[in-house]
Amino acid sequence: MNVSATTVLIAEDDPVFRRVLTFTIARTGLAVEAVCDGAAAFDRLKKGGIDFLITDHQMPICSGLELLQRIVDDKSIGKIPTVLCTAKGLELDTQGLKKKFDLVEVMHKPFSPRRLSDLITSAVEAIRQDVKESSHIPLGIASVHGNSGVHTNA
Protein backbone atom coordinates (compact mmCIF):
# COMPACT_ATOMS: atom_id res chain seq x y z
CA MET A 1 0.00 0.00 0.00
CA ASN A 2 1.19 3.49 -0.77
CA VAL A 3 0.78 5.03 2.67
CA SER A 4 1.65 8.49 1.39
CA ALA A 5 -1.63 8.36 -0.54
CA THR A 6 -3.56 8.27 2.74
CA THR A 7 -4.66 11.38 4.62
CA VAL A 8 -5.60 11.07 8.29
CA LEU A 9 -7.63 13.74 10.08
CA ILE A 10 -7.14 14.07 13.84
CA ALA A 11 -9.76 15.84 15.97
CA GLU A 12 -8.26 16.29 19.45
CA ASP A 13 -8.62 19.24 21.81
CA ASP A 14 -5.56 18.48 23.96
CA PRO A 15 -2.67 20.23 22.15
CA VAL A 16 0.03 17.93 23.56
CA PHE A 17 -1.81 14.72 22.68
CA ARG A 18 -2.72 16.17 19.26
CA ARG A 19 0.99 16.83 18.56
CA VAL A 20 1.98 13.34 19.75
CA LEU A 21 -0.62 11.72 17.48
CA THR A 22 0.32 13.96 14.54
CA PHE A 23 4.03 13.24 14.91
CA THR A 24 3.56 9.49 15.37
CA ILE A 25 1.28 9.09 12.38
CA ALA A 26 3.33 11.38 10.12
CA ARG A 27 6.43 9.29 10.86
CA THR A 28 4.74 6.32 9.18
CA GLY A 29 4.48 8.30 5.92
CA LEU A 30 0.80 9.12 6.21
CA ALA A 31 -0.35 12.66 5.52
CA VAL A 32 -1.88 14.21 8.65
CA GLU A 33 -4.20 17.11 9.28
CA ALA A 34 -5.20 18.06 12.82
CA VAL A 35 -7.99 20.19 14.26
CA CYS A 36 -8.95 21.00 17.84
CA ASP A 37 -12.68 20.16 17.90
CA GLY A 38 -15.45 18.22 16.22
CA ALA A 39 -16.92 21.26 14.43
CA ALA A 40 -13.60 21.98 12.71
CA ALA A 41 -13.28 18.28 11.85
CA PHE A 42 -16.75 18.24 10.28
CA ASP A 43 -15.93 21.34 8.21
CA ARG A 44 -12.71 19.68 6.99
CA LEU A 45 -14.48 16.40 6.18
CA LYS A 46 -17.02 18.29 4.05
CA LYS A 47 -14.15 19.43 1.79
CA GLY A 48 -13.24 15.80 0.99
CA GLY A 49 -9.88 14.11 0.64
CA ILE A 50 -9.79 12.50 4.09
CA ASP A 51 -9.22 8.75 4.18
CA PHE A 52 -9.25 8.11 7.93
CA LEU A 53 -10.55 9.93 11.02
CA ILE A 54 -9.27 9.83 14.58
CA THR A 55 -11.53 11.70 16.97
CA ASP A 56 -11.44 12.34 20.67
CA HIS A 57 -14.62 11.62 22.60
CA GLN A 58 -14.73 14.74 24.78
CA MET A 59 -14.05 18.04 23.00
CA PRO A 60 -15.47 21.55 23.21
CA ILE A 61 -17.95 22.93 20.65
CA CYS A 62 -18.71 19.51 19.13
CA SER A 63 -17.85 16.23 20.89
CA GLY A 64 -16.59 13.15 19.12
CA LEU A 65 -20.01 11.49 19.39
CA GLU A 66 -21.72 14.60 18.00
CA LEU A 67 -19.21 14.61 15.15
CA LEU A 68 -19.91 10.95 14.39
CA GLN A 69 -23.66 11.57 14.34
CA ARG A 70 -23.21 14.56 12.02
CA ILE A 71 -21.18 12.37 9.65
CA VAL A 72 -23.92 9.72 9.64
CA ASP A 73 -26.60 12.37 9.03
CA ASP A 74 -24.69 14.08 6.20
CA LYS A 75 -24.71 11.63 3.30
CA SER A 76 -22.34 13.81 1.25
CA ILE A 77 -19.36 12.80 3.40
CA GLY A 78 -19.69 9.07 2.89
CA LYS A 79 -18.07 6.36 4.99
CA ILE A 80 -14.86 7.38 6.71
CA PRO A 81 -12.99 4.69 8.67
CA THR A 82 -12.85 6.07 12.20
CA VAL A 83 -11.19 5.48 15.55
CA LEU A 84 -12.78 7.06 18.63
CA CYS A 85 -10.33 7.85 21.44
CA THR A 86 -11.63 8.22 24.98
CA ALA A 87 -10.52 8.59 28.56
CA LYS A 88 -13.95 7.40 29.72
CA GLY A 89 -13.03 3.72 29.80
CA LEU A 90 -15.77 1.68 31.40
CA GLU A 91 -18.28 4.55 31.26
CA LEU A 92 -18.89 3.98 27.54
CA ASP A 93 -20.63 1.13 25.76
CA THR A 94 -17.67 0.42 23.50
CA GLN A 95 -19.32 -2.37 21.51
CA GLY A 96 -22.52 -0.37 21.11
CA LEU A 97 -20.59 2.64 19.80
CA LYS A 98 -18.57 0.48 17.40
CA LYS A 99 -21.78 -0.98 16.00
CA LYS A 100 -23.79 2.27 15.89
CA PHE A 101 -21.10 4.27 14.10
CA ASP A 102 -19.31 1.37 12.33
CA LEU A 103 -16.06 2.33 14.05
CA VAL A 104 -12.77 0.62 13.32
CA GLU A 105 -11.98 0.80 17.03
CA VAL A 106 -12.63 2.58 20.32
CA MET A 107 -9.27 3.18 21.98
CA HIS A 108 -9.06 3.94 25.69
CA LYS A 109 -6.45 6.49 26.79
CA PRO A 110 -3.67 6.07 27.47
CA PHE A 111 -2.82 3.89 24.49
CA SER A 112 0.19 3.24 22.32
CA PRO A 113 0.35 5.72 19.42
CA ARG A 114 2.25 3.02 17.51
CA ARG A 115 -0.72 0.65 17.95
CA LEU A 116 -2.94 3.36 16.48
CA SER A 117 -0.62 3.79 13.47
CA ASP A 118 -0.65 0.04 12.86
CA LEU A 119 -4.44 -0.02 13.17
CA ILE A 120 -4.83 2.78 10.61
CA THR A 121 -2.47 1.13 8.14
CA SER A 122 -4.26 -2.23 8.46
CA ALA A 123 -7.72 -0.70 8.13
CA VAL A 124 -6.83 1.38 5.07
CA GLU A 125 -5.12 -1.61 3.42
CA ALA A 126 -8.23 -3.75 4.00
CA ILE A 127 -10.55 -1.08 2.62
CA ARG A 128 -8.39 -0.49 -0.45
CA GLN A 129 -8.24 -4.26 -1.06
CA ASP A 130 -12.04 -4.44 -0.87
CA VAL A 131 -12.26 -1.53 -3.32
CA LYS A 132 -9.83 -3.22 -5.68
CA GLU A 133 -11.75 -6.50 -5.55
CA SER A 134 -15.17 -4.92 -6.01
CA SER A 135 -13.91 -2.47 -8.67
CA HIS A 136 -15.88 0.43 -7.23
CA ILE A 137 -14.63 3.20 -4.99
CA PRO A 138 -16.71 4.25 -1.96
CA LEU A 139 -16.78 7.86 -0.84
CA GLY A 140 -14.04 8.71 1.59
CA ILE A 141 -11.49 6.44 -0.07
CA ALA A 142 -11.78 7.87 -3.58
CA SER A 143 -9.18 10.59 -3.37
CA VAL A 144 -5.49 9.92 -3.69
CA HIS A 145 -2.93 12.38 -2.38
CA GLY A 146 0.64 12.35 -3.59
CA ASN A 147 2.26 14.43 -0.89
CA SER A 148 2.85 13.29 2.63
CA GLY A 149 2.85 15.97 5.25
CA VAL A 150 1.47 17.46 8.39
CA HIS A 151 -1.19 20.14 8.30
CA THR A 152 -2.77 21.58 11.42
CA ASN A 153 -5.63 24.00 11.90
CA ALA A 154 -5.17 24.45 15.61
From TrEMBL:
The keyword Phosphoprotein applies. GO terms for biological process: phosphorelay signal transduction system. Residues 7-124 form the Response regulatory domain. Keywords: Phosphoprotein, Two-component regulatory system. The keyword Phosphoprotein applies. PANTHER family: PROTEIN PILG, STRESS RESPONSE REGULATOR PROTEIN 1. This is Chemotaxis protein CheY. It comes from Rubripirellula lacrimiformis.
